[in-house]
Amino acid sequence: MLRRSAISFLLLACALTAIARTRPHYGGTLHVETAGDPWQRPNGIARRLVLDGLTRIDANGSVQPALATGWEADSGYHRWEFHLRPDVHFHDGTPLTSAAVVAALNLACNGNCPWTTVHAVGSSVVFTSDNPQPNLPSLLASDEFLIALVVAADASTPQGNIGTGPFQVVSSSNGVLSLKANEACWQGRPFADAVEIRGHRTVRDQWLDLGLGRTDLVEVPVETIRQAQQQKLKIVETPHVELLALKTFDSGATANPAIRAAIASAIDRSAIANVIFQKQGEATASILPQALSGDSFLFSTDRDLNKAQSLRGGLNLPTLTIAAEGDGILQLAAQRIALNLHEAGLNAAVAAPGVNSMHSDMALRRLTIPGTDPSAVLDEVLRSAGESSIGADRSPAALYKAERTVLDQHTLIPLVDLPRTYALGPRMRDFHLTTEGLPDLADASLEDAP
Q1: How far apart are the first and last CA of the chain?
Q2: CATH classification of the domain holding 302
């Protein structure tokens, strides 16, 4: 009997030890490295650590309250009212008010807002629009509309980014952005005491620092996933959360619909997915991924060089320029597209890195697929690409028709669906990615935290 009691006690002690090891720990500093600027828009890694939106998208892709606790619309989706969460303060102590939210939103979209007007009405924020906005709650969860303090309580202009998020800025120097936990965060205190983000680091340097234990989280570009697996990195990968697409501008040579159609027919999507992105992306000719719409297969990804040459006809066109908006891998993809167009009899050249895409005929872009609501995703992707909204009808038939209309115009040419991937160090615990494929460091903890 005594022996059995001793064994039971030992098993209980082992179980409690296991629980203690897996329970999140408070404390410690998370170290993160990234190739870009932590504040870059959209989706800089620091933005959602410091700033909140009126709404957020949960792990299931559903819209949830954030700085707004609830909202309602009129029957035609022309007017929305969002009710602010009470007793929320910015990191400097300034109260969150409807006026502060309106100022932040007006600055964020700088006159090019998807709504017509936004007003502060008591503790609510009211949006009105000439066109119906059925997906406004989802839209307001996007990176573009995160709320930063514009005017402090003393009427001064804040220096740097001040939000209401789980972390607040301490300093930014020598390429290192230092954040500390927001003890009074409305969501609750994050587990880590601090986060240090080193930007503008090459992938090679990121992986080297991860191996030496100098950092806890690094990026794994899509085209390097296989290499990361061979190196036994602990990787976390999302489903397809980015769309690589070619935006053609309705001016100059690409103002001709036949030329835009020729461009779409000439591109070898499979080669871009298989060669440039090392078979880690999926060739697509639709805006919505198959997992969201169920009808992506209806849009053919096959290259038709004969059709492209026929559409070009005998037109003698100037050299078409392609701007790659992003990292070096997009430059390679743009060069592949230029080669495809040359094979169809269209002269094309890739603009130098950093050239404003508005000075080019086409722009190669990575567009975020934000969430799992097909209507909201299609609306947001079209809006971010400069295309028209889908309207109030959100039925599957209406979504297909809206998508087909855009694709038939060839002003937005989908190419490849892509995942996002990161690698973790051995100290990282409780880490997951948002539905947009961004690190959620507010809930992450460190194994060796005190």
Answers
A1: 38
A2: 3.10.105.10
Q: Is 10 exposed, middle or buried (0-12, 13-18, 19+ CB in 10 A)?
A: exposed
Residue 192 pLDDT greater than 80, yes or no = yes
Whether residues 360 and 224 fall in one domain = no
pLDDT for 417 beyond 60: yes
Are both 250 and 364 inside the same structural domain?
yes
pTM: 0.88
**pLDDT averaged over the chain?**
89
Partners of 179 in beta bridges: 169, 195
- Domain for residue 67, yes or no? yes
For 265, counting Cβ atoms within 10 Å of its Cβ (0-12 exposed, 13-18 middle, 19+ buried), the class is buried
CA proximity to 342, closest of 366, 299, 312, 379: 312
Identify the DSSP state of 236: E
The C-alpha atoms of residue 39 and residue 70 are separated, in whole angstroms, by 28
Tell me if 54 sits within 8 A of 120, measured CB to CB. Answer: no
Give a yes or no: residue 22 inside a domain: no
d(CA 240, CA 430) in angstroms, rounded, equals 22
**77 & 117 share domain:** yes
Helix (H, G, I), strand (E, B) or coil at 370: coil
pLDDT digits (tens, 9 = 90+) for 312-360: 887 778 899 999 987 789 999 999 999 999 999 999 999 888 777 777 8
Domain presence at residue 151? no
* Domain count across the chain: 3
User: Which of 334, 388, 389, 384 is CA-nearest to residue 361?
Assistant: 334
Any domain includes 179: yes
Domain that holds residue 192: 29-41+165-238+420-446
- Tell me what pLDDT residue 3 has: 44
Per the structure block, which two tokens stand in for 47?
A: 């933005």
**Are residues 334 and 414 both part of a single domain?**
yes
Q: Give the whole-angstrom CA distance, residue 48 versus residue 34.
A: 15
Question: What tens digit of pLDDT does each residue of 260-293 get?
Answer: 999 999 999 999 999 999 999 999 999 999 988 8
Please check whether residues 84 and 180 belong to one and the same domain: no
50: nearest Cα among 137, 167, 147: 167
